[in-house]
Each structure stands twice: as structure tokens, then as C-alpha cells.
Design goal:
Length: about 350
């Protein structure tokens, strides 16, 4: 079954064709980052307007890339929630119209569920076999670690769409903290991948930043990033008070040290929440998803736990894309829950 997946929940205009839930036939991601970079964050109005202008060409490219005509697609899926309302509407409306004019099913997809599905996608080899890390049956239940620019969540996954939240961030998302810290230290938007790179040159033990203490009233796997974010941003003021400019601090390698120490603390917060869930549930398979799952430090720290089987999507499938939407929708259709228009 060939499913066209459309993703327009934020600033990526994306479309893909996926066969039988795992084999990616095409995957087009048109990023709007240059349009938002000068504002230091996504401007919803610019995002929705740009999606409107790009969606047709993006879907065409996805079909061409898969060597298909519009009539060859068996179903259409689009991200329905959560996300920027105006942006979501573009992909949803386009997808519904595409499906309706061809008399094929349309499937609305939850963006977070789709991110958690991304690790199950493969490229599909010419011999018909799939090269997903999960090739064969996924070992349900597993724990999900969803870390993106808008969400941070630890959850229990009992089936592709049976997802129980065990903990979330109480304030900023992990990616948001990476982006805001990076911005204050002069890194381009979105800063996550630049923080990841710069941290490699720094000393992660140079600064000790505070860890949140939350679980008295909340769930053991809840997390918080705003205290850490503010402490790291305030560190810049400390540099200034030492009458040294940011440039001097940078030359002295202090920026890289701050960034590396921040990344260490942020990953520690994420992993502490995750390891509590491992202890509480006894589940030792973890599937990650979302833009921050591309982080090399997170991957390395998690790999140190020999008792945990961690599955990450390839970095290019961690961020927003249409393939995860199409792949997830295939299972919804097989389960008979393809929504009527
Ligand atoms: O999943 P995503 O593409 O969009 C949302 O659904 O939010 O995630 C984007 C987030 C941004 O905050 C970006 O800075 C972050 O993922 N990110 C990273 C890395 N690559 C992207 N954060 C840390 N390390 C990375 N290598
Ligand atoms: Zn996302």
C-alpha cells in the first residue's frame, strides 16, 4: 500500500511516499528556516503563508521522486495536531482535497505519535526487504523518548497508537532550551545542531548548572528545562561582569565550555526522566524521536547503558518529515481507523 504523508505542523513543508508502513519511496523536506532565522524563532504567519505557496510543489516532488502519478497513491495522511494552527490547516486541507478528489482514504495523524514511529522506517531495499532497525515485529511494549523543539515526553508505547504519557516537561521543551541558549551565545537558528557541534570542543565539566528537583508533586519522569536555560544564559552576564567581552570569553574557549556543560546538564535531565521510567516499568527497550534525538551526546550517553536497547531513527528522520506521517497512517488504515472526510 502506497501512502502519501504530508507534514506542515511547523516550519518544514514536507511530503513523502511510504510503502507498506516502512519503505520510504521518497521523502521531501522543504525547510523554511532561512525565512524565520532573522526573527530567532518561527513566525506563525510567515510559516502558514509559505506552506500555502510550497505545498503543491512539495507534494509533486514527492510523487515524482517515488516515480508515481497522483492516481497511484492508495491513501493520504497529514499531520492534524499538535502544531501551529494556520500551518496545520494547509497540509490538512491539501491532503483532504487530494484524497477526496481521488476517492481514497484520508488519515489525520498526531505529530508526536508520528515522531515516535520514525525509528520504524527504512529505505526499503530493491530486493523487497526493509532495513528499518525494527525489521520484523517491533518489541512492544517499549518506552518512547520524544524530544523536539515543541515537546519533551517519556511514554510507554503498547502499540503504534497506544501511547501512555509517563512524564513531560513542565515548562520549556528540550529543543527550545537548546535553541534559546544557542541564540544567546551567538549560534544560528535553530541552534540545536550547532550546540551539539560546539560542545565537542568544550569541557563539559567546566560549569555546574542546577538540576531541577520536581518529583515531590509531579510524576517521576516529569522534567524542566527553564531553570537550566536561565542559569546558562545568566552565565553570559557573569562573563560581562568580569569586564570581559563575549568575544574574549569566546577566545578563551569559555563559550564552548558553557555550551558543553549545558548540553551535559540538559541530557542528564532527559536521561534521569527516562531511567526513572525504565526502573518503574521494567521496560528496557527505548525508542527515541524528534529533532533533539539527533543529538550525538544524547546518543552516546544512552549507549553507555548496556542494559537498555536504544533505537534511534537516522538523524535525517529525527526532525519533521512526511515519511513518519505516512508510515504511521498505514497502521491506522490497517486497523480500520481511516477517517471519513
Ligand atoms: O522535531 P523537530 O524537527 O520539530 C518539532 O517538532 O519541534 O525538532 C526541532 C528541534 C529544534 O529545537 C532543533 O534545535 C533541535 O530539534 N535539534 C537538535 C539537534 N538537531 C536538531 N537539538 C540538539 N542536538 C541536535 N543535534
Ligand atoms: Zn516535530
Amino acid at each position: 500500500m502506497l501512502v502519501l504523508g504530508i507534514e506542515t505542523s511547523c516550519d518544514e513543508c514536507a511530503a513523502a511516499v511510504v510503502e507498506d508502513g516502512t519503505a520510504i519511496r521518497s521523502n521531501v523536506v522543504a525547510t523554511q528556516i532561512p525565512f524565520h532565522a532573522r526573527w530567532g524563532g518561527v513566525v506563525p504567519e510567515i510559516a502558514s503563508r509559505t506552506h500555502t505557496e510550497w505545498i503543491d510543489a512539495t507534494v509533486r516532488e514527492a510523487l515524482d521522486g517515488a516515480g508515481l502519478a497522483a492516481g497511484d497513491v492508495d491513501a493520504v495522511a497529514a499531520t492534524a495536531e499538535p502544531g501551529l494552527l494556520g500551518s496545520l490547516l494547509v497540509g490538512l486541507t491539501f491532503g483532504k482535497a487530494f484524497a477526496w478528489t481521488r476517492g481514497i482514504p484520508f488519515v489525520p495523524v498526531n505529530h508526536l505519535h508520528a515522531h515516535l514511529y520514525a525509528a520504524r522506517l527504512g529505505t526499503g531495499r530493491s530486493d523487497g526487504s526493509k532495513d528499518s532497525p525494527f525489521a520484523g515485529s517491533p518489541p512492544y511494549p517499549y518506552l518512547g523518548l520524544l524530544v523536539s523543539g515543541g515537546h519533551s515526553m517519556v511514554c510507554r508505547v503498547d502499540d503504534f497508537d497506544q501511547i501512555t504519557t509517563l512524564g513531560t516537561t513542565l515548562d520549556d521543551a528540550a529543543g527550545e532550551a537548546f535553541d534559546k541558549v544557542g541564540k544567546h551565545y551567538g549560534l544560528p537558528y535553530p541552534a540545536g545542531k550547532y550546540v551539539d557541534e560546539m560542545a565537542k570542543a568544550g569541557n563539559e565539566d567546566a560549569f555546574r548548572f542546577p538540576m531541577p528537583n520536581l518529583h515531590k508533586n509531579g510524576r517521576p519522569s516529569d522534567m524542566s528545562f527553564s531553570g537550566l536555560k536561565n542559569a546558562v544564559i545568566n552565565q553570559r552576564e557573569t562573563f560581562r561582569q568580569r569586564t570581559r567581552s563575549a568575544k574574549e570569553a569566546e577566545n578563551a574557549g569559555e563559550t564552548a565550555d558553557v555550551i558543553a556543560s549545558f548540553q551535559k546538564a540538559a541530557v542528564k535531565i532527559l536521561l534521569r526522566a527516562l531511567f526513572r521510567a525504565v526502573d518503574d516499568t521494567g521496560i528496557t527497550t527505548v525508542v527515541a524521536g524528534g529533532g533533539v534525538a539527533a543529538n550525538s551526546y544524547l546518543r552516546a550517553r544512552l549507549a553507555e547503558r548496556a542494559d537498555i536497547h536504544a533505537v534511534f531513527p537516522p538523524p535525517e528522520l529525527c526532525g519533521d518529515n512526511g515519511a513518519m506521517v505516512a508510515g504511521f497512517a498505514y497502521h491506522k488504515l490497517r486497523g480500520g481507523s481511516g477517517a471519513a472526510l
